[in-house]
Design brief:
Number of domains of chain A: 3
Oligomer: heterodimer
Number of helices of chain A: 22
Order of helices and strands of chain A: HHHHHHHHEEHHHHHHHHHHHHHH
Helix content of chain A: over 70%
CATH class of chain B: Mainly Alpha
Number of helices of chain B: 6
Largest sheet of chain A: 2 strands, antiparallel
Structural class of chain A: mainly alpha
Structural class of chain B: mainly alpha
Chain lengths: ~575, ~210
């Protein structure tokens, strides 16, 4: 019972791992609706269990080789601290922290605390694998994408057929990636519990040994993660980085599957040994970092290594450095409390240095040290509950900050929209005012011209009246009747001449010219041989004046106007039947 | 099983494209028959074009349903549906134009007949060139740009011809009434519009091809 309770921290870590794995493998396929969530979850969980049971022992062995951990209390603390670090660093960097790096960091922390011998050669191999995995993934995705794209382009396959085939292969690649995830990362859950978990199961006649049972339980926890991962998350790696075509998605998933598969077995170590290098161990690697590597590979071939990819690379590197270090420190501190405060045995007495061994005399005086099995169960239960509460708190905080950010975004967008509308309205208002100003200025100019004309007219009239007054005065003052008559006749003639309204006619003609500008242009084009007087008659005809109305304006008789019209008809080549006025109106 | 359904969808798309091709041919023949006063053949063309339009509508709806029901190409299907809609517009326009010829019976002067035939042929050629381009999008997106180049060329030519016709109508035909001139101008515009829609299809195809190649 106590062992099962201790195992909860490992299972929690397994659940986290499953959720991350599902996001890394299937998120893009689900978001682009190439694979349904249910299909992805069922296939993923099934193959993760298979991978964990069939091939998980290799990486578990490596972690076990790094340092043999035989106490369940120590394993519990390591898994718990790793889980906490994964949650915290993921929340900080918004980049899924590696459970493998967290667990290895925690193991190092445990070895520091207990002074247990850490095999530096294995540790070196693990770190080398962590560095190599993303590079291998980039190379893998580069080659795969090149081949896939070339084969698709050369095949000239119909897009529908291509999509159907790619979808089938995507499910296959996802299954393979889930299998590799199970085979590679199950060590993060089972590695620390392997030696301390000794429960076996007898089902009918079938005996399931403890190692297989542990793998099975851990795989189930990972599978649960596949079912419960947040498919609405916007922080999945690669979202919005590259245009996620089916080819890109399949290559990324395939690269993840291949790299994790390679690091799950002895295959790579064999190659390295044959090449004369130090053999690399089967190591649990980070699926998120492999994914970033795959994205870089595809980005390189597409020629898009934009800011987002560089940002993801930076986050991956930061997370890879911070996670193991933070895990190391937190585990070290937690082990101290576990050992000294709660009295939980975190290591074998043979491996624990004397200073850390529980002192019989001291234990008698420490009232807070809990020793009984029942109390330990309560304590462990409380700890597990606390961790759960912490996780839920982090989850709620994340969601709140996301919702807050979203609503803030909406608010800002609305404000921007409002601002845009206001700007647009302002611009319209400005244009209207400008147009009004232009119109007012034109009117003002016209009025000014009119005023000038009026004032000139008044001046002219005044001068003329003065001239008449002077002539009449001369006539009055003159004694000679002949001179008087002459002066008065001259004045009469002048007044009659003045009555011909030449200026006014010119003004009418000028205004008509402005209104019928196109008509005058057409007349000038079509009948260039017309005289000025004839053009004037045409304009007056266009206005709609009759011969009688025209005669005083032109200062000629009605008969003369009729003759002028007759000449016009001849010059314009009009038939007898055609009406001149109608013809002019139709131009 | 999955490929069987996919093959059915491919067949539907091919049928739709064939339907577009046939409709454009009918439109071309219809205009020719109208201009040469072959009333019987013209009426026959209208009837066939109306049937073709109905068939293309049905095919488009069936393709839409199939794509959605089988969740085929969730990323591309929006674009593909838009492409099919635009191509369906070509048929709609062709049908509408032929019906307008039938209802309004525009008087086309003898000296403009050859111009109208040339304009119809060029405009329809632009529309016809979208079909190999669309087929290329489905099978070989790299060559789409090469194919749509022809659409742009024919569209430009159609614009030029329409301008020439309009100029002739308004500048060189004083005997025509203004109402007749307007009428002829509208028919020039209607025929020209087919090439404009073809240009829209070409624009859409070029973007879609880029999307597929990224």
């Amino acid at each position: 019972m106590l062992t099962c309770l201790f195992l909860t921290s490992g299972l929690f870590l397994g659940w986290l791992l499953g959720a991350q794995g599902a996001s890394n493998i299937f998120d893009r396929a689900i978001k682009t609706r190439m694979v349904k969530f249910k299909t992805a979850a069922v296939i993923g969980s099934l193959f993760v269990v298979l991978g964990g049971i069939l091939q998980g022992h290799n990486t578990t062995g490596t972690l076990n080789e790094l340092v043999p951990l035989e106490t369940v209390g120590g394993a519990f603390t390591i898994a718990l601290c790793a889980a906490l670090v994964v949650i915290t660093t993921t929340a900080i960097y918004r980049f899924p922290a590696s459970t493998s790096q967290a667990i290895v960091g925690a193991i190092i922390g445990w070895s520091f605390y207990t002074s247990a011998g850490l095999k530096s050669e294995i540790l070196f191999k693990i770190i080398a694998s962590w560095l190599l995995a993303p590079i291998l993934s980039a190379a893998c995705s580069f080659v795969l994408y090149f081949l896939v794209r070339k084969s698709i382009r050369s095949s000239r396959m119909h897009v529908l057929k291509k999509e159907s085939i790619l979808r089938f292969f995507l499910i296959l690649a996802g299954a393979l990636a889930a299998y590799s995830l199970g085979a590679n990362n199950i060590a993060n859950v089972t590695g620390v519990f392997k030696n301390s978990f000794s429960t076996s199961l007898l089902l009918g006649g079938l005996h399931i040994p403890s190692a297989q049972l542990l793998s099975f339980i851990a795989s189930l926890a990972i599978a649960l993660g596949f079912f419960t991962y947040n498919k609405k998350t916007k922080h999945a790696i690669g979202n919005g980085i590259l245009s996620m075509t089916s080819e890109t998605i399949i290559v990324i998933v395939m690269a993840q599957a291949l790299v994790m598969f390679v690091f799950s077995g002895k295959f790579l170590s064999g190659i390295f040994s044959n090449m004369g290098f130090t053999a690399l161990a089967a190591t649990p690697v980070s699926s998120s970092q492999i994914l970033v590597g795959a994205l870089v590979g595809v980005g390189l071939i597409k020629g898009i290594l934009d800011l987002e990819i560089k940002k993801a690379l930076g986050e991956a590197a930061l997370s890879a450095i911070t996670t193991p270090l933070l895990s190391l420190i937190i585990t070290f501190i937690s082990l101290f409390f576990m050992n000294n405060v709660f009295g939980i045995q975190v290591a074998n007495r043979t491996t624990l240095p004397e200073t850390l061994l529980p002192n019989e005399a001291a234990s008698a005086t420490r009232t807070y040290q809990i020793a009984s099995d029942t109390s330990q169960q309560i304590l462990i239960g409380t700890l597990v509950l606390l961790v759960l509460a912490f996780s839920i708190y982090m989850l709620i905080r994340n969601r709140r900050s996301y919702t807050k950010g979203k609503s803030e975004g909406y608010r800002q967008a609305k404000e921007y929209q409002l601002f845009d509308y206001k700007n647009a309205l302002g611009a319209i208002e400005e244009t209207t005012v400008q147009l009004e100003n232009v119109s007012l200025a034109t009117q003002l100019e016209k009025k000014k011209q009119q005023l000038i004309t009026y004032s000139l007219n008044i001046g002219e009239q005044r001068r003329y009246l003065e001239h008449i007054a002077k002539s009449i005065k001369q006539a009055i003052n003159s004694d000679n009747i002949e001179v008087k008559d002459k002066l008065l006749k001259e004045q009469l003639m002048e007044i009659e001449q003045r009555m011909s309204f030449t200026g006014e006619v010119d003004e009418i003609y000028r205004q008509a010219e402005q209104v019928h500008m196109t008509f005058i242009e057409k007349i000038n084009e079509s009948y260039p041989n017309l005289t000025n007087k004839e053009r004037k008659i045409l304009v007056l005809l266009r206005i709609g004046l009759s011969s009688k109305e025209m005669s005083p304006l032109l200062n000629i008789s009605t008969k003369s106007v009729e003759i002028a019209r007759y000449r016009l008809r001849n010059k314009m080549g009009l038939d007898r039947n055609k009406n001149l006025t109608e013809f002019i109106q139709s131009i | 099983m999955l490929l069987k359904k996919t093959n059915k969808s491919i067949e539907l798309i091919d049928n739709f494209l064939n339907c577009v091709d046939q409709s454009l041919l009918l439109f071309k023949e219809g205009v020719k028959n109208y201009l040469y006063n072959n009333t019987e053949n013209f009426n026959n063309d209208i009837l066939q074009l109306a049937n073709s339009e109905k068939e293309s509508d049905n095919l488009r709806r069936e393709i839409e349903t199939t794509l959605f029901l089988q969740s085929l190409m969730p990323q591309l299907r929006g674009d593909i549906m838009r492409l099919l809609e635009e191509m369906d517009n070509l048929i709609d326009q062709a049908k509408k134009n032929l019906f307008q010829f039938e209802v309004e019976t525009p008087h086309i002067p003898a000296e403009l007949i050859s111009d109208f035939i040339r304009l119809t042929q060029t405009s329809v050629s632009a529309a016809e060139s979208t079909i190999p381009a669309a087929k290329s999008y489905f099978n070989d997106p790299v060559n789409v740009s090469e194919k749509i180049h022809r659409v742009y060329f024919y569209e430009k030519e159609a614009d030029l011809m329409a301008d020439i016709i309009r100029r002739k109508i308004f500048k060189e035909m004083p005997n025509l009434k203004l109402s007749e001139k307007f009428h002829l101008r509208y028919f020039t515009l209607h025929i020209e519009n087919i090439s404009d829609t073809a240009e829209k299809v070409a624009d859409l195809l070029s973007i879609m091809a880029i999307k597929r190649m990224i």
